[in-house]
Amino acid sequence: xxxxxxxxxxxxxxxxxxxxxxxxxxxxxIEGFLAQKTDFLYEVLIHDDASTDGTTSIIQSYxxxxxxxxxxxxxxxxxxxxxxxxxxxxxxxxxAQGKYIAMCEGDDFWTDPYKLQKQxxxxxxxxxxxxxxxxxxxxxxxLNSRVESKFEKVKEDFDLDLFKxxxxxxxxxxxxxxxxxxxxxxxxxxxxIFPSGDLTLIIFLKLKGKIRFMKGLWATYRIHPNGVYQGxxxxxxxxxxxxxxxxxxxxxxSKKLPKSSTRRLLFIFKVKNYLSIMYLKMKGLVKPT
Length: 289
Description:
This protein is α/β, with parallel strands linked by helices. It folds into two domains: 11-234, Spore Coat Polysaccharide Biosynthesis Protein SpsA, Chain A, CATH 3.90.550.10; 236-283. It has helices at 26-34, 55-65, 87-92, 115-125, 162-168, 197-208, 236-255, 261-285, and strands at residues 11-19, 41-48, 70-74, 100-103, 109-110, 129-140, 145-147, 158-159, 179-181, 210-223. Strand 1, helix 1 and strand 2 form a beta-alpha-beta unit. The model is unreliable at 228-234 and 285-289 (pLDDT under 50).
């Protein structure tokens, strides 16, 4: 449970969690939230997309025990099946009270009780950064064992650049690792239509400022057949579609800006994004041997 020696009654950070039919996982995720040791207050905003497996009752049990922390939205109809993709941006981000937003879906979990404190300390001390992320272990549910994660090879902190983001798509960081500033306008409504939320979010943040990748493995990313990221959003066709939407959005945006460093950055972005689209198209044509 958190420690708050500062005595402040204001929430500094909002944890945003999406869940759907995560009855086997959600308790571990929530326990990871509550285990955080911080010198600030935080809240946990959970969006349950009309689960049918008992996830809802688990969330409500925690809400009854921690009503000042656990704040769920329980849908009666599944929003994903109705075509909504930017669920966090629609339901959780607008109600976040914190200066910072952390994200972790209901099938992943945090393993370091000082994770939030370390990330918030970094952002407090480095105002030119808009977000920070970190590595994670991977756990394969089908194998019931931990599998090798590329993040285990990261030995030093570094700044994410656009080319690395484009090359690795949304997989450039574990979605359960991000902590970002909640500075309005936080997320333009124009971006709500995009099919790949992780990629859209990290590009949007990168164009706002610097993003630090911290070498720690402070979470576990779970791989299982029902995970959204292992399904629809992982197809090359959907990734390319998302890249074209992003390209069009920022092309239109750059026309509205005066000549400036921001406009030059958008031009570099468009070139790199176009090269990335070409790379993905070629990758889709090459069949694995």
